């Protein structure tokens, strides 16, 4: 399925990330993101042990869990929310394994989710979820990293659906002052082997980095920079302004 | 065929695997390739065996616990890992991995630690081999295992306090893996137990196999029961490996507050599919034990497999039983063991003379470490 139809028309995709349940009225951020020009939105299902996440998204996850957010409550909130862009769930393997891949994917689909990204399920371990996602009509998004070999890149590109998520830098999620040089190299390598949109994420912290990444990729994922603002108390309206600036920089 | 063979694709039955982000896959593969090659290389094996002998003090004795055994009506033998250099079995794995890291051209060791025994061993090997060491340790463990923090610092390691989550071993492991992602070119992740992504569960078991192999050679009898404490499960894995092809019952003893085998469910944590203490949605639970080294919600995947096929049994001991066991072993045998190791002793104390451990049984118990760290 095509999660980002705008890319085929030359539009650069803007995909913000939001930790599910981070505030009581967290779904208001979804509407603000949509209004600011998001093409899709990644929803993080908070996990107790997010080993790929830096301190900001760790704090966001802890905050959501401490508030009492659960997979069930987040999916119920989503099911009760009308959002006009595709929603992608990003989480960790244990939540999927615990529920069972088929049941987990079915619940996501029922809540109106269109895609799934499991950070710690590399292509070698993804088979059981691949089938479940396909059966539920979910696009299974896979990660590629600067160290991914050509052979693996080809395999990942062959099996990914929705878009290919290129990790810009060797490290965890989090705000960074500049876009790593490895981002451009990886985006170019990925685009050479797939027709899927290639999005750059990790460390996209502001309009300048978004624009820079947009030069080499089909779009960007913005996570920690937004979560830092929410943790500091920014309202949906204020975050909409931030995101609109990135939209403008990409366009 | 051995019950504890080379895992195919990193799997032990339904457990194991390599559940790490794509960024860590090449690093894991590089460790697997390097270990496979080194383990088949006589030069590497000779260098490790020599270090284990002239530096770590191996072989460690198999001590007959005559007084306690007589009281319990069993023949009890203690495999004395507490007498290895740095005070626990951790040195066996650390020397192996540190030599491997140097062979791979790595200059920095990254490790997690709970009780601090693995951190001390890592700091020790780094000092010996001229590598730098960064050890992640939860602030709760730093408070209760202060002596080992001083030892690590004395040895030149950097101890990084971890304040996330439960501030114990689970969180220190997360942080060590995050540090590794950012420095895979220079650093080797020196995981201290038989968990983590392939090849760690297999590699660490192989480096700890020396415990069981020595004990089997030293024993003048065939034990009825082989018992060891289990957190992640490295001393138990190494011990079991020496006896898995004998009729001996293999018993692993977990902390009652961190009993992944007894109270957990299948899950994925720290790179492996195994048994995990968790809630109904898959949030990992916080373990709670007097023994920092067993204060861990998971267990190595090979233990999950040995339990699933019925080859090993997993029991628990409570904090109170453990404290009593430390005292009883000290007063009967003159050996002060670590809280972790005392879990195995506690099970023997409880089970001896019952159908679970009948009078007259011959028991080999791995005493994984010494108790100085717990004195305060």
TrEMBL record, chain A:
User: InterPro entries from the xrefs?
Assistant: Aldolase_TIM, RibuloseP-bd_barrel, Trp_synthase_alpha_AS, Trp_synthase_suA
The protein's UniProt keywords, in alphabetical order, are: Amino-acid biosynthesis, Aromatic amino acid biosynthesis, Lyase, Tryptophan biosynthesis
PROSITE patterns in the cross-refs: TRP_SYNTHASE_ALPHA
EC number(s) from the headed UniProt entry = 4.2.1.20
The record's section on CDD domains has: Tryptophan_synthase_alpha
Keyword set includes Lyase: yes
The catalytic residues are 42, 53
HAMAP family named among the record's database cross-references: Trp_synth_alpha
Name of the protein in question: Tryptophan synthase alpha chain
The record's gene field reads trpA_1
Automatic annotation (TrEMBL), chain B:
Task: PTM N6-(pyridoxal phosphate)lysine: list the residues.
Answer: 90
Keyword Amino-acid biosynthesis annotated: yes
**Gene3D superfamilies per UniProt:** 3.40.50.1100
Q: Which UniProt keywords apply?
A: Amino-acid biosynthesis, Aromatic amino acid biosynthesis, Lyase, Pyridoxal phosphate, Tryptophan biosynthesis
Q: In which pathway does it act?
A: Amino-acid biosynthesis; L-tryptophan biosynthesis; L-tryptophan from chorismate: step 5/5
Tell me the cofactors it needs: pyridoxal 5'-phosphate
Extract the InterPro entries matched here. Trp_synth_b_CS, Trp_synth_beta, Trp_synth_beta/beta-like, TrpB-like_PALP, TrpB-like_PALP_sf
Query: What sequence ranges are listed for the domain Tryptophan synthase beta chain-like PALP?
Result: 56-369
Is the keyword Translocase in the record?
no
Please describe the quaternary structure of this protein. Answer: Tetramer of two alpha and two beta chains.
**Protein name from the UniProt record:** Tryptophan synthase beta chain
Q: Which organism is it from?
A: Paractinoplanes durhamensis
